Amino acid sequence: MVARFGRAFVALAVIGCMPAVADAKTKSRQPSLYQSPDSPGAVRGVGVESQDIVSMSDAMMRDLLTVPAIMNAATAPRVIIDSAHFRNESSEIIDKAMITDRIRVLLSRAASGRVRFVGREYADAVQMERDLKDAGQVDVGTTGRTRAMAGADYRLVGRIGTRDAVDTRTGVKERYSTYTFELLDLEYGDLIWSNIYEFKKAAQDNVVYR
Amino acid sequence: MSSKLLAGLLILAQGAPALALADADPAPYLAKLDSEGDRNRVLNQMEIGTRYFWSQDFQGAGRSFDDCIQNIELVFLNDPSVVKARSLWYEEGAKTFKGEPYERAMVYYYRGLVFLAQGDYENARAAFRQGTFQDAFAEEEQNQADFAVLYFLEAWASHLNGDKDLRDEALAKVHALRPDFPGIGESDDTLALVETGTAPRKLGDGLDHSYFVFRRGKGFTENRAELVTAGEQLPLYAMEDVYRQAATRGGREIDQIIKGQVKFKRAANDVGSTLTDTAQVVSALGGDGTVSGALAGVGALASILSGKAKVKADTRTWSSLPDRVHVSTFASGKLGMQDLAVQFLTDGTPTDQPTQQLITIKDPRGRQLALARSR
User: Fold this and answer.
1) What is the CA angle B187-B193-B199, rounded to 5?
2) How far apart, in Å, do the first and last CA atoms of chain A sit?
3) Which InterPro entries does this UniProt record tie to the protein (chain B) (predicted)?
4) What is the distance between the alpha carbons of residues B198 and A60, in angstroms, rounded to a whole number?
5) What mean pLDDT do residues A55-60 have?
6) Residue B21 pLDDT
7) How many CB pairs under 8 A join A and B?
8) What are the residue ranges in chain B where pLDDT is below 50?
9) Which of A29, A93, B7, B222 has its CA 20 to 30 A from that of A60?
């Protein structure tokens, strides 16, 4: 009786110890889901994420709306907001234009014509059209000719910096990130506005990867 | 004579065109990407990315290495695969592969090179910096963050971007690790980067291969390279030994877990053998059959538990990595880029491999990246 029970126990133990089928092929795949860009995503690390880009561009846009030289000028000032002079000196691989584009678009909508935005990164396209007009290959359009392309009064400049640290004992990685935004007067060279967005993130991977 | 034949003869006369990988076709790994799923996703993307890179498909390489980076940086705290990898009943290889630190660092190395080829020096610099952090987990302090080629490439990216202060900061780190490195000339606009040899190997060792040891790749002798132009030899600096990066990493934390599993396996096996033997003795002495049966049953269970315990270490390896990386920077105006070739050497003596022309890539900002690989 005991021997029979023992054999049954052994059989159950064997079944219990059988590895579950770990076949990636059978893993069910989740359909893609829309998520709010200002909510934390499933991918968590120490790098910049969509909610950081949304938060920082919102904050900068709101602050720019309070700059008197921009918002209270008698003539709408011309501003360049692109990524050309927004320097990435950090350890973060990033598409800088995602930040500057968002600031420009939000500011453009909020400023309601009180600011003019110069699309300097598209100067080639403008020059090509002007050349065609000069050559008489196309007509002058409906808004007439100007002597030159628009010059700008101000330009967004800035810098991305990071400081990384790793605790080799615990495997905790930390990254302190700073995004500095400034508005450069393109005639005098002084900075008429500055702001900074900073955050620090820490992450610890599982022990099997350390 | 047809123009194609003439071109072929010209190439033969000048040396073979720059070599891609011996097995440059990414198709088998693309198929595996689908069939092997997330567990081997990073490994297969590493193999695919390298093949795209050496085929000069930088868009494809960028996509593959971005996918690797996204998964490497993903934090797997309670992922089922890592729970399995820590359990007694699954091999370490059950976990989703992220690679050892040297492999992760090399993902950033290639991603940064792709950014360089595309003229994005700032993101190239960021990639190289992140690569050095992957190397920060070496157990032995003197081997932490000593990936000289990544510091050098960080310096090069800053040089191209006109950030002299950042270039010099990175060069100081290079000189700390490689005091005889000649540095980067102010007017240098071209980087020659040559890879030699084959990837470090991970060989299982111990009970049921419960740990692995690194061995240098096989099937090659070349360990140096030099540039050849207009009959003149120019040295390439041996900046990195990838095998050394793999082998000096020291112990892993998972090794301690596996060591505990090995102890359990041995103990369960010993108990099983002892109880089975005891049962046989009791039975032979004419003892109670119930007692000997119970002893035998428990002994068998212990032996089964021992047999079911999986203690094998994870030896999955990025097979298309090189053994060493050699570099040189120069002003393109001083060298005839059309005739630039590389000669492979073994301890200073040329190997019997033919001279290869370098692949030269001019980035959108006019700077050049000249590449070659011996295997």
Assistant:
1) 160
2) 50
3) TPR-like_helical_dom_sf
4) 50
5) 94
6) 59
7) 133
8) 1-20
9) A93
Mind listing the pLDDT tens digit for each residue in B119-160? 999 999 999 999 998 877 655 555 567 899 999 999 999 999
Separation between Cα atoms, residue B292 and residue B295, nearest integer Å:
5
Residues B298 and B294: their CA atoms lie apart, in Å, by 6
- List, for residues B183-241, the tens digit of each pLDDT value: 999 999 999 999 999 999 998 777 777 778 889 999 999 999 999 987 788 889 999 99
Reduced to 3 states (helix: H, G, I; strand: E, B; else coil), residue B372 is strand
Cβ distance A206 to B79 less than 8 Å, yes or no, reads: yes
CA distance B303 to B266: 10
Residues, chain B: 375
Q: How far apart are CA A179 and CA A55, in angstroms?
A: 12
User: What pLDDT was estimated at residue A16?
Assistant: 41
Judged by CB atoms closer than 8 Å, whether chains meet at B123 and A93 is answered as: yes
Pairing of strands B190-196, B368-373: parallel
Amino acid at B281: V
Chain A neighbours among B 256-275 (CB < 8 Å)? 257
Chain A residue numbers with beta carbons less than 8 Å from the beta carbon of B73 are 43, 45-47
CA distances from B240 to B77, B102, B210, B302, B327 (A): 33, 11, 29, 49, 9
Could you tell me if B297 lies within 8 Å of chain A, comparing CB atoms?
Answer: yes
Q: In what order do the strands lie in the sheet with B359-362?
A: B237-241, B324-330, B190-196, B368-373, B359-362
Residue in B137, B163, B271 to test binding to A, most A beta-carbons within 10 Å: B137
Query: Could B144 and A168 be called an inter-chain contact, meaning their C-beta atoms sit closer than 8 Å?
Result: yes
Q: Where are the alpha helices (DSSP H) in B192-252?
A: 242-247
